[in-house]
Amino acid sequence: MNAGTLESRVGTLERRYLSGTFAELCRIESPSGSERACAERVIAELRALGIKVHEDDAGALVHSDCGNLLARIPAKSPSSGSPEHRPSRSVLLCAHLDTVPLQAPVEPVLLDGFWENENEGILGADNKAAIAVILTLARHISREGSPVDVELLFTVREESSLAGARAFDAARLQSDFGYVFDHASPIGEVIVDSPTHYRIEAAFRGAAAHAGIRPEDGRSAILAAARAVASMQLGRLDAETTVNVGTIAGGSAINVVPEHCSLLAEVRSFDAQRAEALAGEIVDRAHEAANLPECECDVDTSVQRTFSGYRLSASEPAVQVARAALRACGHEPVLRASGGASDANALLAQGFHTVNLANGTERNHEPGERVSVQALDEMLDIALALLDQAAALSPRTAR
């Protein structure tokens, strides 16, 4: 299979549909927890193709107005147009419905071959580029057939510590393995290494007092939090590990010794044991600071392992298929590590083999986010090539 073959399979009208669908999806506001409108657009599109969509009950569990969506398209012979009767391999394609909070309304505009937001805010290409690709693929294989069964999963609250995918029951999946297009880097990159992540919260409680009249009667929670942060190892600690204090909040007025202060920190490391140890160290630093003579505060801490890291072998079937598909589309695969996470982390934690692929988007989570028309087209080519290369695997690999 080569680029010329793919071009003949996916015509100009379908590529126009891809760009148009992407722009339409971007206009639908769907920050984490408010994915319903975007989900309804996806459901309507799939049902118009005769594809049944099942919504799970994750919405109530993860505080979203929508659950995760799962759909299946059986393998179909292009010549007969009927479902295949032989045992078929099955492949999952996954995208998330939510975005980070919007700084401004989204009005997609096409500038020099790139989709951008006309307003000063995110575009939502993360992850609506992948949704548009999957919907276009569904439209194509519903008409032209597919060499493998295809499952489509659309998750909620991915931007909130992968909450939707973590609440999804991966035992419902029938596929051998799956893919998410959710890494903002040049197409061709295959994410085979992702970190373990811990979320640590510390809430300090001191005593309020008038800051100008009786400051000695007060115990500053802000001072305790500041001493704690100053004693922590922060930033990039080594090639595999980062630590960050992301938020700190407290106090009530300029003339009041602050009674309350809380901070939120994270640890990421490709070494799961080191991540756990550093999370414990942050807790220790918080308690030590609270007990300093100049602080004398109480502190409550909580630690949550929000997602588990993974390390995939180049010999795994899902990785082999991804590499073959990329080469078939003219891209040289690059296996790399990422400090971020995706729904692949959550699905892998449940034992379902999933690979995160680069989607060619740029500047995600910030104003100026963009994606090229070429990247959208290439993602569609690669998605189709994944199905072809999965079908070529023999014998079928059990999950």
Summed up:
This protein has 399 residues and is α+β, with helices and mostly antiparallel strands. It has helices spanning 3-9, 12-27, 36-48, 58-62, 125-144, 163-167, 221-230, 272-290, 317-328, 343-349, 373-392; strands at 53-55, 69-73, 90-96, 108-111, 114-117, 149-155, 177-183, 189-194, 196-205, 235-238, 241-250, 260-269, 298-307, 310-311, 334-337, 354-358, 370-372. It has two domains: 3-194 and 309-392, Aminopeptidase, CATH 3.40.630; 197-306, Alpha-Beta Plaits (2-Layer Sandwich), CATH 3.30.70.
Can you characterise this structure?
- This protein has 399 residues and is α+β, with helices and mostly antiparallel strands.
- The protein has 11 helices and 17 strands.
- The strands form 3 sheets. Strands 1, 2, 3, 6, 7, 8, 14, 15 and 16 form a 9-stranded mixed sheet that branches. It has a 5-stranded antiparallel sheet with strand order 10-11-12-9-13. It has a 3-stranded antiparallel sheet with strand order 4-5-17.
- Strand 10 (235-238) and strand 11 form a beta hairpin.
- It starts with a helix and ends in a 7-residue tail after the last helix.
- The model is unreliable at 1-7 (pLDDT under 50).
